[in-house]
Amino acid sequence: MNRTKLLIGGALLSTLLNIALVANAAFIEDSKLSIAMRNFYYDTDNREGGADQREWAQSFKLDYISGFTDGKLGFGVDVQNLVGVHLDGGKGHHPDSNSFTPSDSDGSATSEWSSIGATAKARFSKTEFRYGNTLMPNVPVVIANDGRLQPQTYEGGMFTSKEIDDITITGGQLGHAKGRASTNSTGLSVAGATEESNQFRFAGGDWKASKNLTLQYYYANLEDFYTQHFLGLVHVQPIGDNQSFKTDLRYFKSISDGANGEAGYRFNNNGGYAKNVGEVDNTTMIAMFTYTLHSHALMLGQQRVSDDGGLVWLSQSNVVNGNGRNEGAGGISFYSFTDAMIGQFSRAGENTTFGQYTYDFSNLGIPGLKVSMAYLRGEDIKSVNGSAPDVHEWESDLRLDYVIPNGLLKGFGTTVRHGTYRGGGTSVADQDQTRLIFNYTYSFF
């Protein structure tokens, strides 16, 4: 069945190409066709006796990105075909609640799965409009997650405008999303809620105020859950040859909206305290400073979550499919360094100190090789009942990346990641996690 879908996807692309050739040559001239292949081994060791997870899978992502037809108003279409193959998981090592591969009716991993999606687009002057179900927004208030085998994609409409020099404006409305381990779309929600919304509206912009300074403002509203404002500042100060100092400041203000707090619309505050139980009420401030010298980069930062409630971000509805299986909708990104490999460090009252050191081996004659080490520690977390016991958490992450810079396999990438998480009084289980990822993208044209 999934092989049939892949063939259908190929036939669809071929048909679109033929139509475009006849209709408008410019549609083809700027078109791109590529296939991205990702081989992923995922290993989680739960240190508190829970079920471990060990899985290995392969994905193929076929993307056709058209150009635009000629004229003041140009039209185009993007088509995406996703195919996943489960290679091995080991009996008993596929938790049904995971977001790595879909689950079958008996709770085991599905052997194969696939999906096809498309997005129509239009361009007028320096503004582009997109409508479809392969959207991957990347702005501070909504980020599509691509941290597993297949990417998370959204359904809805978006626009990006660069009509004003040095200003980029982005906005839209999203209604559904397809998880990283699913072939189906679900509604949008927040952590802990059982109801969903199909209206997430957002808008904002980046203003490059000077060569070294960028200012940001974004607004978001998930109907019946929350309204959020974001302010950002990024400044890069050159110091000398191959030296710079970067300042990155972020501010989130989130409040309750509509039915939030009522049965089904409750936010669980990331397993922590809430001044108003079930409701969104949060202010989060983040400051990061990075000093770069030649191949070295040292980043230090601080995140402060207000005492009234945890940081909120867009999630997917926690529904199950017709067989009673989890939809694989877990795993949502949010715009903070504390969205780490394992933990999130986002509970009420949490004060997180973090740092990262990165080294680029290019100066040693090994271009394409980078290593980074990160550490995060969260203190002063308010427990669910509001008392102040010793609730804390920490995580250390190690990452090694190598991309072949030239030759026949140019662009072939290897990533090794290992994370260690330990908590004191938190709801997250202590665990060690290892990931081994191989990426390669081949462009046909």
**CATH level-two architecture:** Beta Barrel
Q: What is the CATH homology-level superfamily?
A: Porin
Mean pLDDT: 89
- SSE order: HHEEEEEEEEEEEEEEEEEEEEEEE
Shape: globular
- The Cα radius of gyration reads 22 Å
How many helix segments?
2
Structural class: mainly beta
Helix content: under 10%
The gist of it:
This protein is mainly beta and 445 residues long.
Describe, in plain words, how this protein is organized in 3D.
This protein is mainly beta. The chain has one domain (122-443): Porin, CATH 2.40.160. 6% of the residues lie in helices and 51% in strands. It has helices spanning 2-23, 25-29, and strands spanning 32-46, 53-65, 73-88, 112-124, 127-135, 138-139, 142-143, 153-161, 167-178, 185-186, 188-189, 200-208, 213-222, 226-240, 243-256, 281-293, 296-305, 315-316, 351-360, 369-379, 392-403, 413-424, 431-443. The model has no long low-confidence stretch (mean pLDDT 89).
Task: Please give a handful of descriptors for the protein shown.
51% strand, globular, mainly beta, two-stranded antiparallel ribbon, 18-stranded antiparallel beta barrel, single chain, 445 residues
What topology emerges from the helices and strands here?
Blueprint: H1 2-23, H2 25-29, E1 32-46, E2 53-65, E3 73-88, E4 112-124, E5 127-135, E6 138-139, E7 142-143, E8 153-161, E9 167-178, E10 185-186, E11 188-189, E12 200-208, E13 213-222, E14 226-240, E15 243-256, E16 281-293, E17 296-305, E18 315-316, E19 351-360, E20 369-379, E21 392-403, E22 413-424, E23 431-443
Antiparallel strand pairs: 1-2, 1-23, 2-3, 3-4, 4-5, 5-8, 6-7, 8-9, 9-10, 9-12, 11-18, 12-13, 13-14, 14-15, 15-16, 16-17, 17-19, 19-20, 20-21, 21-22, 22-23
